[in-house]
Amino acid sequence: METEETPQDGSAAAPTPGPSDRRAVLSSDVRIPRHRRTSRGQSGSRGSRRAFPGAPGPFRSPALRGAVVGTLVGCAVLGSVLMVQGRGEDPEPPALGPAGRAMAAVGAGTPAALADLGALIGEREAHLRAYPGDDDSWAVLGSAYVERGLRTADSGDYLKAEQALRTSLKARPEGNVQALTGLAALGNARHDFRAAKKWGEQAVRLAPRRWTAHAALLDTYRGLGDTKGVARALEKVRKLRSGAAVRVRTGTVFRDRGWREDAAAALADAAALAKTPAERAVCLYEVGQLSWERGEAADALRHYDAALAADPDHHPALAGKGRALAALGRTSEALRAYQGALARQPAPEYALELGELYEFLKLRPAARAQYDLLRTRVKQAGLGGVNDERVLGRYEADHGDPEAAVRRLTAEFKRHGSPENADALGWALHRNGDSKAGLKKVETAVKKGPRSAVFFYHRGEIERALERYGDARRHLSEALRINPHFSPLGVPAARKALEALGEPPEGGPSQVYAPPGEVPAPLPSPKPSGKPKPRASAD
């Protein structure tokens, strides 16, 4: 019978940091204070909002549960596989060696160092050459490949992961929750959320109390734009698990819903509870992301730097550092940071961001080189089953062929109706000349998605094209209030549009009352209409 998984590292008993702990995490020096371990229910933290969907409520529940976006979900899945290898026994964590460190880290559902993860993969491969029928080891290997692929943007690891996980299923076709959960994580990594939903829901049916399966499904439902599914999955994970991993996931969901203060508290909790450098880097990166989205570039930079200090292999933080440095006007440093991120994790999103920064700097040949790299990376990733249609569509809409962007993004939105896909499609429709249809999609993104400066910018520009000048002025101004650094190309365009729109016309009393000294002419008296004729009887 399936039982609730108990964290091997004692995270279920970890205290929820109080407000002072969070403030230390979010301060300029990004120091995480130690705090006393207490029994469950005795911490002074604020908790989560009320269950989704519904109006936000007080942030007071005793524990926030979830799993970390991307990398940390892969770790949680891998940790689940490792913990069940003993078929119900409690394994002793290995004391020595990089593979042992990786086993210990991911056994607790936390990220492993990239070098240690590589050692674990090598150890499992060697083991399987001697014991090819070991279904659990195939599941471990496949899940480890998924995590490494996420960390390095090497889609070849996804092909290896699929082969390993399907081999595990072939060796044990019935009740193989580990392989099913690994396949769900693989679908998420490839942005194939329909496949992820299929595998994840099978895993949940077989093991309804396995938190890693619900964590993978939470990622899936976010990718599909299924807010009710996100609510169910988050609630389930919160009941089954606690610790840094779950607090990060809770924070990202809160951020998606626009609950930024609660998101900040949850993410600060996660950073305070992180037990390894790699886990701490993930948490600090997410805090930096929230700061960036709020327009706090200097604070975001501090957290990206802290993430890199904890784990130099956390490449998303290096790209985030480039973004923040560019916003602060430190363009030479920004270019170096982006180039470093692309050298280590050549993700198409980074190439698009760097290309637009070059374009802002009037370095058009360098920008074109990045756009060419983007197309190449999308093609290469596609060979590994990765769906990067949204980033390619965004590129085509602004720098290539808007008609092709509409085709790509229409198909992508039908597959995965997330707010991000709705916004990208709406903008592509506008760029291709159909602003009316584009506005409907962008309005959907604004209504259902996070409070995004990009969404409001797109909405304002489309409204300006439709001559809805009051709405355009309001939404362009809102984009700059949310994040005055949201894009090196979008910010100057928004400011130029607002300048062209000018100040709103004077209204109010000047248009209601006559100027002083002028008396309006009296209205003519109505002519008598005569005696009304009686109506004919209905009878």
What does this structure look like?
It is a single chain. The protein has 539 residues and is mainly α. Among the domains are: 20-31 and 242-329, Tetratricopeptide repeat domain (Serine Threonine Protein Phosphatase 5, Tetratricopeptide repeat); 65-238, Tetratricopeptide repeat domain (Serine Threonine Protein Phosphatase 5, Tetratricopeptide repeat), CATH 1.25.40. Helix content is 64%, strand content 0%. It has 25 helices and no strands. Helix 5 (135-152) packs antiparallel against helix 6. The chain is globular and about 75 Å long. The model is unreliable at 1-69, 83-91, 508-523 and 535-539 (pLDDT under 50).
Task: Summarize the helices and strands and which ones pair or pack.
Blueprint: H1 19-26, H2 71-84, H3 98-107, H4 114-130, H5 135-152, H6 156-171, H7 177-189, H8 193-206, H9 211-224, H10 227-240, H11 244-256, H12 260-273, H13 277-293, H14 297-310, H15 315-327, H16 331-344, H17 348-360, H18 364-383, H19 389-399, H20 402-415, H21 419-431, H22 435-448, H23 453-465, H24 469-482, H25 490-501
Helix pairs in contact: 1-12, 2-3, 2-5, 2-7, 2-9, 3-4, 4-5, 5-6, 5-7, 6-7, 7-8, 7-9, 8-9, 9-10, 10-11, 11-12, 11-13, 12-13, 13-14, 13-15, 14-15, 15-16, 16-17, 17-18, 19-20, 19-21, 20-21, 21-22, 21-23, 22-23, 23-24, 23-25, 24-25
CATH 2nd-level architecture of one domain: Alpha Horseshoe
Mean pLDDT comes to 82
Helix content: 55-70%
Low-confidence stretches: 1-69, 83-91, 508-523, 535-539
Query: How many runs of DSSP E, i.e. beta strands?
Result: 0
CATH superfamily of one domain: Tetratricopeptide repeat domain
**What is the element string, with H for helices and E for strands?**
HHHHHHHHHHHHHHHHHHHHHHHHH
In the CATH hierarchy, the third-tier topology of one domain is known as Serine Threonine Protein Phosphatase 5, Tetratricopeptide repeat
Radius of gyration: 27 Å
Oligomer: single chain
Overall structural class, as computed from helix and strand content, comes to: mainly alpha
Determine the N-to-C terminus distance.
79 Å
Instruction: Report the top-level CATH class of one domain.
Output: Mainly Alpha
- In terms of DSSP E residues, the strand content is under 5%
Shape: globular
Q: Give the helix tally.
A: 25
Q: For the report, how would you describe the main beta sheet?
A: none
